[in-house]
Amino acid sequence: MNTGKGLFDIFNYKLNYLHFIIDQQIQQQKKNQQIKRTKNLRMIQIVEERSEQQQQQQYEIDGVSQRIWEEVANQYRQEIQSLQLQLWQNSVDKMFQKSNGVPKKYLQKLKMMKMGKSNRQCSICCNQFQKDELIIQLPCKHIYHKSCVDSWLQSSTKCPNCRSDVLEALKNQEK
């Protein structure tokens, strides 16, 4: 039985897929940030242009000098930069949070049994089931090694074969 190699291959596949998804999300966030940065820079540019115009005219607006308006513009610029940094950090934090798998309380409700004599194989690790081996049957009736499906359902709510939603099916069984 070559369970270790199969699990290693699955782990590598999942890791490569996770890197791909993270790269895609980072690229999209960079695009979104560039758009926001461009808009914010344009707003700052407008404030600075107005500030320069007012400085050239050498007059006060509502009794407040030009210097105070420049300070306000600088404060806004700093606040915008701080908000951009917070937005970026929040996005990165969301990416690296544990993915939305099936909660443990639902995993315990899955049908667990011992395998009888069979020529079938687990479609996660691609190894044949052995007699008296622990297997789990999902609500869609597909069966897997317990260790394989447990690790799969920690990061996904879908059946690896038919893509039916395991979490929804378990919630419906509760009702």
Q: What is the typical, i.e. mean, pLDDT?
A: 80
What is the number of strand segments?
A: 3
User: What is the string of SSEs from the N terminus onward?
Assistant: HHHEEEHH
Share of residues in helices: 55-70%
- What is the chains' assembly state? single chain
Total helix count? 5
Number of domains: 2
How would you portray this structure in words?
The chain is mainly alpha-helical and 175 residues long. It has two domains: 14-95; 104-174, Herpes Virus-1. Helices cover 61% and strands 6% of the residues. It has a three-stranded antiparallel β-sheet. Strand 2 and strand 3 form a beta hairpin. Helix 1 runs antiparallel to helix 2. The longest helix is centred in the first third of the chain and has 55 residues, at 3-57. The protein is elongated and about 90 Å long.
What key phrases describe this protein's structure?
2 domains, mainly alpha, 175 residues, RING_finger_E3_ligase, 5 helices, zinc, three-stranded antiparallel sheet, Znf_RING, 61% helix, Herpes Virus-1, RING-type domain-containing protein, single chain
